[in-house]
Design brief:
The protein is an alpha+beta fold and 218 residues long. The protein is 48% helix and 12% strand. Residues 18-194 form the Nitroreductase domain.
């Protein structure tokens, strides 16, 4: 098999995942995703890009019946949070820079970076991110977590699972009920499991209607 044929096959497999991912709101409550498989999905999710590799994304996995029931009224009684195998709350860590030494230390051990350079990167990252205004700190965390959220949905689909991104929940009550404190920003909820009902089809605007070249023309 030629290299070009292999590449085409890999591309098609990925494009099929992109095309087949739809937001599913009705789940089979009998399906249980083992925690080890969830951990694998989350590990692949963490390969998403992040600002200065500070990895601002955090996950709160809600997978027990009791915790799902606690979440239900906070999520406006949307049944998918109960019927899905788990709900992954995507959080943004506004103080992710506190892990800079560990992050760059791992890079040294992996042979990706010299030790002296890692020390410089660590200090620069701590200085930069610890001094950001609160609004900007929050924005960086939300952007990083949002990139990871999309990656999670694609990884899940590649493994045969369905998801739906949820913004319809009370963030203040969620933060209080699940102990987020001031450090973590709730970005979205993502139920994950197996569809009990096929997602309805959707259409998208023509690319000509959503793309500008070189400048925005109103």
């Amino acid at each position: 098999m030629s290299v070009s044929t292999i590449t085409t096959a890999h591309e098609e497999a990925f494009l099929n995942v992109v095309r087949e991912r739809h937001s599913v709101r009705v789940y089979d409550p009998k399906v249980v995703i083992p925690r080890e498989e969830l951990k694998e999905i989350l590990s692949l999710t963490m390969l998403a890009p992040s600002s200065s590799n500070m990895q601002h994304t955090r996950f709160l996995v809600i997978d027990t019946p009791e915790q799902k029931q606690k979440l239900l009224p906070i999520a406006n009684n949307q049944q998918q949070v109960v019927d899905a195998s788990a709900v992954v709350a995507i959080l943004g860590d506004k103080e992710a820079y506190r892990n800079a030494e560990q992050i760059y230390g791992q890079a040294v051990k992996a042979g990706y970076m010299a030790e002296e350079l890692a020390k410089t990167f660590t200090q620069n990252s701590v200085n930069l991110y610890s001094s950001l205004p609160p609004a900007m700190s929050r924005e960086v965390a939300v952007v990083d977590a949002s990139l990871a959220a999309m990656q999670l949905m694609l990884v899940a689909k590649a493994k045969g699972y369905d998801t739906v991104p949820m913004g319809g929940y009370n963030r203040e009550k969620f933060a209080e009920a699940f102990g987020l404190g001031d450090r973590y920003v709730p970005v979205m909820l993502i139920p994950i499991g197996k569809a009990a009902k096929t997602a309805h089809g959707t259409t998208r605007l023509p690319i000509e209607d959503v793309t500008f070249w070189n400048e925005v023309n109103n």
